[in-house]
Write a structure and sequence with these properties.
single chain, alpha/beta, D-Maltodextrin-Binding Protein, domain 2, Double Stranded RNA Binding Domain, 3 domains, 5-stranded mixed beta sheet, 9 helices
Amino acid sequence: MITLATRGSALALAQSQIVLAELRLRAPGLEVHLEVIDSDGDLNPHSAVPDLEGRGWFSSRLEQALLEGRVDAAVHSAKDLPSELPSGLRVGAYLRREDPRDAMVTGGNRSWRELAEGARVGTSSPRRAAQLRALRPDLDLVPMRGNLDTRLRRVEAGEIPAVMVAAAGLARLHRGHLGQLLDPHLECTPAPAQGAIALEVRAGAELDGLAAALDDPATRVCVESERAVLAAMGGGCRLPLGALAEAVGGDRFALTVAWASRERPFQMLRKSGTAPGPELLDLALGFATELRT
């Protein structure tokens, strides 16, 4: 039997079920137990993420259980992983990525263009906030924590006209019809690794080999280049940084990076380019260097 660590939200459990199904597909008869572990972010639901100390607010307690041998692997939203993993741990698999885009959920299924002047929009993401301000400086951006279900319920109850969420989360909870997707190249570039599920394991452990069978090579190339930008820019979800890499045919990948301008409020700086897979990391680091200066 193997034990997988997971957070307890509906989305986290749905993602763990995806991993569980993939494991059983490759190892029929494998007995898998899910161990629910609350993250620091879960235990501090009313704190804004930037107010929580350190990094890994949604992953560190799962990683500690993995390091202590209490679980065999941990299932994460890849965007929640810190830019540097603890020594002895590695991402054994990035599963095939779901839609990485951001979505706006509103009471009337409206786009950001159709919101009333000064409308309130819930988001605690500095990245989403910066890009929304560039699109609609008039919007009233309201800090909002809580899991996806909680945020959707607030819109349904009429407490707030709109919230920003990840399209992948909506899809995995079979609620994709609720969101209006934003253009990731021109409107709202997603967080590095958004939409990908990461299976974290102990390096060299027996499960490491089985995890490798779940790994999607194209997703890994994309996510690792996006995470390289994040690390080069200082790491952490406090940064107003978006990064998206996509396979565009053959061995070529396109990369878009968005960064909030320090000198010009309500303006995003964007870099875009293409490169073969082996050169994508260099392109990503080059973009980070240009945006830092």
